[in-house]
């Protein structure tokens, strides 16, 4: 019974990932796409958490932490690139 | 009355842990799905950021808390990695939303047509003049 409930939750997370994917493809501006990609990463994290309850395993906790960090760093890099045109600024002193 | 609820709890072999964790996971999934609906339906990037950054991250926090409680109560396994993941998502999601909105405004993404106020525009123009 609990397993069926978790499967339904995973299905709804899949639907929200598909909605974000629609926004990635269609999104009129570039920050829209980056925001939808960040939302996909966050929803993937939630899906992995539900999957680790479903399978009763500890093995995916590292992956939760890793996807959180990588999604954060990637979104920060995209935001800097959209704002300034470069990711890493050089010659800050001049 | 108490016996009735105990009977409901023990229905189909579902213990109280599954009720607590299932409630948290259900709250999280509902928030996440509603934020996806907002991501499709809202008119411009700023309102979409409002939908995504609030409700999706709250939903993920609820789901991760449910996972943490499940393994803590069911197996007695205190996962410091999962706790770090919760802390990290809680810390970084406002930063990401703020930076993306700032990048969108500075790169000139237009607001929706029926939005009524733009305080930052006056501020930036005054800053340009000085």
TrEMBL record, chain A:
- Where found? Cell membrane
Which Pfam families does the record cross-reference, listed alphabetically?
A: MrpF_PhaF
Instruction: Tell me the domain of life.
Output: Bacteria
Which stretches are transmembrane? 35-56, 63-82
**Bilayer disposition of the protein:** Multi-pass membrane protein
Which UniProt keywords are given for this protein, alphabetically ordered?
Antiport, Cell membrane, Ion transport, Membrane, Transmembrane, Transmembrane helix, Transport
Claim: Transmembrane helix is one of the keywords in the record:
yes
Per the similarity annotation, which family is this?
Answer: Belongs to the CPA3 antiporters (TC 2.A.63) subunit F family.
Q: What is this protein called?
A: Na(+)/H(+) antiporter subunit F
């Amino acid at each position: 019974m609990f397993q069926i409930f978790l499967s339904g939750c995973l299905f709804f997370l899949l639907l929200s990932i598909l909605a974000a994917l629609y926004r990635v493809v269609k999104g009129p501006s570039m920050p829209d796409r980056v925001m939808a990609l960040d939302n996909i990463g966050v929803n993937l994290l939630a899906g992995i958490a539900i999957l680790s309850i479903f399978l009763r395993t500890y093995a995916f906790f590292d992956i939760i932490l890793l996807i959180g960090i990588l999604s954060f760093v990637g979104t920060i890099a995209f935001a800097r690139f959209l704002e300034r045109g470069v990711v890493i600024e050089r010659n800050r002193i001049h | 009355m108490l016996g009735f609820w105990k009977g409901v709890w023990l229905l189909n072999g579902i213990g109280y842990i599954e009720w607590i964790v299932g409630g948290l996971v259900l709250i999280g999934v509902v928030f996440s799905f509603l934020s996806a609906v907002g991501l499709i339906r809202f008119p411009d990037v700023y309102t979409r950021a409002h939908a995504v950054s609030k409700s999706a991250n709250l939903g993920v926090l609820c789901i991760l808390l449910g996972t943490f409680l499940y393994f803590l109560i069911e197996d007695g396994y205190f996962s410091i990695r999962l706790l770090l993941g919760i802390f990290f998502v809680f810390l970084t999601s406002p930063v990401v939303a703020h930076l993306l909105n700032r990048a969108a405004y500075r790169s000139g993404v237009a607001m929706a047509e029926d939005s009524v106020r733009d305080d930052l525009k006056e501020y930036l123009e005054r800053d340009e003049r000085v």
